[in-house]
Write a structure and sequence with these properties.
single chain; Glycosyltransferase; three-stranded antiparallel sheet; 9 strands; binds 2-acetamido-2-deoxy-beta-D-glucopyranose; glycosidase; transmembrane; hydrolase; mannan endo-1,6-alpha-mannosidase
């Protein structure tokens, strides 16, 4: 009774289906309940992460990732590899992890290596500190006895940071940058405090030393006092400029800021066992729901930049830390498990599904909530997908250790040496900064930031709207996309290489500020529709051949090692008047000319 004419149709349909599913079949199909599924996918993701790292190869520097990745991200990645070992038991990368962690310790064993110090921020140092703290908490194989030990390294980082607590402005807090000549010296940012806070809380827990807890408490109080944490909605904002006494907030929210505060609050809760810290923790977790999108509002997104396509290299990795830290807190605050895990599970399934990129067909992109691969690959994307995948194993994994409960890492409460309170470099590599160098250092710190008005999703949020932030964001996502692809067609982003070259060629454009140096950076306009492949648009394209290859494609950023910006924070726009100067488009043609009626205008 078959109708023969339908057979070919069925065949066609079946074939089409097969084709479609065979494409899908290449994506990871994660079963978050199966250890086997989680570990086998994690193994492949880890392989693809480590493939970016060359530091262990002959002639390379252990602990550095190739351009465009900054020093801090390598430290964060070592933390991910510790996590990988802890969750899966696979020690394949332990040697390179230990080698990298020990190579970058610097002269006084506090993660201030000379090659990085001049542009090092507290947050950069903090990420290395958090990684060695994890090594201590999980008895990651201890270094040989003649080498600095994990706990001692974490303590030294903590000590140097405590000595930088700055009461000159904003009645406390850490500045973003360590040294005065770096532009971000005038900015106090949440992630620097969050790293210090979480490190202090974890040291208190590990060592039982109340001094660390006092510092964590103080940092928390300061964050509340300057309103970097909003105690109404429990959002964590990015930071503020010292010249306003931290009264004018930079409103962007990034996953790692919230994550770092959540991590420290959980450790403090475990340390104090107090209702006060439990409430703080629970409130922050509620606030962090702002980062979950998708139809069920349960898929993690870097909402400030994903929705508008402007995440920079650093920002590609931030979800790794929120994933890692949300998993961690379920150990220190077991009552959070049932709240947090559904979000991590849903996010991990979504993250794994979109890993179909690259030559091997399994590289992960940035955006998890779109059911499709976004075409990007990188250390950050890979690290984030791996962390969220492994987070599914936390329920069956052992709790962090303390000195009393099995932790074997040796400490040194007095670590930090000459770097304690150092405000000027010394030694041959620390020669007094001359004009040219100062210029270099400052620009290294401030470039490569795509924090331009109109490119940060959260600027679209209307606090007074009845809709929740996530609902608003969803609306905004699509309108932002429309904006992105049609109306604007032009996205501004900073030229790293080109910015340096052009600005260096035109040193007169730099203006001195009281503190630090203001550089007028170049802005490049990128036009998607024109199929730009990274050249400057407009008149300055004639000059690109004399400059380092220009930015735009994130993965093509920074062609020269010397152009590393070591800090990881987006600088505040638009609230921050002093920094605003530093990112104004330079006037002449040597700066990136904007097409489309000057996206630079939008920025002011
Ligand atoms: C966790 O352990 C339980 C009990 O051994 C097991 O049933 C479950 O599958 C495990 N889950 C994962 C994700 O490993
Ligand atoms: C790690 O280093 C040790 C000692 O050098 C060596 O015995 C071991 O095989 C190495 N492991 C791996 C996975 O490379
Ligand atoms: C510092 O840079 C020099 C030159 O590139 C390199 O040989 C050395 O290994 C680096 N040191 C660290 C700790 O990265
Ligand atoms: C977080 O968990 C990872 C793996 O679970 C571990 O390596 C790291 O030490 C943990 N950190 C904290 C703060 O528990
Ligand atoms: C804090 O959140 C509340 C509620 O969303 C909002 O009205 C207020 O403006 C926020 N405060 C700051 C400083 O952003
Ligand atoms: C910042 O606060 C300090 C002390 O509270 C005060 O002396 C200073 O004048 C303030 N600066 C500004 C710009 O408000
Ligand atoms: C503190 O952490 C330990 C180890 O994870 C856990 O067993 C204990 O229940 C936690 N304490 C509190 C108050 O949650
Ligand atoms: C979302 O996915 C659709 C296809 O499913 C694709 O056309 C679109 O570009 C994606 N959006 C982003 C922001 O990646
Ligand atoms: C506790 O930590 C502080 C700050 O690092 C240190 O000065 C003090 O010596 C430590 N106390 C003990 C008993 O280790
Ligand atoms: C891409 O760059 C190459 C040289 O770097 C140039 O020849 C080519 O025209 C560019 N393509 C587009 C679409 O701009
Ligand atoms: C490059 O310079 C030439 C003359 O020097 C000019 O005619 C041309 O328009 C410039 N190209 C661009 C893309 O601006
Ligand atoms: C290239 O830029 C320099 C200044 O940065 C300028 O003097 C020169 O005229 C430019 N060359 C072209 C061909 O535009």
């Amino acid at each position: 009774m078959e109708n023969p004419s339908r057979v070919p149709l069925l065949v066609r349909v079946a074939t089409a289906l097969l084709l479609a599913t065979s494409q899908l079949a290449t994506a990871y199909d994660l079963n978050p309940d199966s250890r086997e599924s989680i570990t086998s996918i994690s193994k492949q993701m880890a392989e693809d992460l480590v493939a970016f790292y060359k530091g262990n190869e002959p002639g390379q520097t252990p602990g550095l990732l190739p351009d465009p990745y900054y020093w801090w991200e390598a430290g964060a990645m070592m933390g991910t590899l510790i996590d990988y070992w802890y969750y899966t038991g696979d020690d394949a990368y332990n040697n390179i992890t230990q080698q990298a962690l020990l190579f970058q310790v610097g002269d006084t064993n506090d993660y201030m290596p000379r090659n990085q110090t001049r542009t090092e921020g507290n947050d950069d140092q903090g990420f290395w500190g958090l990684s060695v703290m994890s090594a201590a908490e999980y008895n990651f194989p201890n270094p040989p006895a003649d080498k600095p030990q994990w706990l001692a390294l974490a303590q030294a980082v903590f000590n140097t940071q405590a000595s930088r607590w700055d009461t000159e402005y904003c009645q406390g807090g850490l500045r973003w940058q360590i040294f005065t000549w770096n532009n971000g010296f005038d900015y106090k940012n949440s992630i620097s405090q969050a790293c210090f806070f979480a490190l202090g809380a974890r040291l208190a827990l590990y060592t039982g030393n109340q001094t660390y807890a006092d510092w964590a408490e103080k940092t928390w109080n300061w964050m509340i006092g300057v309103k970097f944490i909003n105690t109404t909605n429990w959002y964590v904002y990015d930071g503020a400029d010292v010249e306003t006494n931290c009264t004018v907030l930079t409103p962007y929210q990034f996953t790692y800021n919230a994550g770092g505060m959540i991590l420290g609050a959980a450790a403090m809760y475990n340390y104090t066992e107090s209702q006060v810290w439990k409430d703080r923790l629970d409130n922050l977790i509620t606030g962090s729901k702002v980062f979950f999108t998708g139809p069920k509002s349960n898929i993690m997104a870097e909402v400030a930049c994903e929705s508008v396509g402007t995440c920079n290299v650093d920002e590609h990795s931030f979800k790794a830390y929120l994933s890692r830290w949300l998993a961690n807190i379920t150990k220190w605050a077991p009552h959070t498990y049932n709240t947090v895990m559904p979000y991590l599970r849903a996010s991990s399934i979504a993250a794994a599904k979109q890993c179909v990129g690259g030559k091997n067909g399994r590289m992960c992109g940035l955006i998890w909530s779109n059911n499709s691969y976004d075409g990007t690959t990188g250390v950050g994307q890979q690290m984030a997908a791996l962390e969220v995948t492994m987070a599914n194993l936390i329920g069956n994994s052992s709790a962090p250790l303390t000195a009393d409960r099995g932790g074997t890492s040796q400490g040194d409460p007095g670590g930090g040496g000459d770097d304690l309170g150092r405000d000027q470099p010394n030694g041959p590599d620390y020669a007094p900064i001359n004009g040219g160098d100062r210029f270099g250092a400052a620009i290294l710190t401030i470039l490569v930031i795509a924090s331009v008005i109109g490119t940060m999703g959260f600027l679209f949020l209307d606090e007074t709207s009845g809709q929740g932030p996530v609902a608003q964001l969803k609306g905004c996502y699509f309108s932002a996309k429309g904006f992105y692809y049609s109306a604007s067609a032009a996205i501004t982003t900073f030229a790293a290489g080109g910015g340096i070259a052009a600005a260096a060629a035109a040193g007169r454009k730099r203006g001195e500020k009281e503190k630090g140096v203001v550089i007028k950076e170049k802005v490049v306009t990128k036009s998607r529709d024109s199929g730009s492949n990274g050249s400057l648009q407009g008149s300055s394209s004639n000059n690109t051949s004399t400059e380092a290859p220009l930015v735009i494609n994130q993965s093509a950023r920074h062609s020269r090692a010397s152009q590393r910006r070591s800090s990881n924070m987006p600088i505040g726009w638009p609230q921050n008047p002093s920094l605003r100067n530093s990112v104004v488009v330079a006037e002449s043609s040597s700066a990136g000319a904007s097409t489309e009626g000057s996206s630079s205008n939008r920025r002011l």
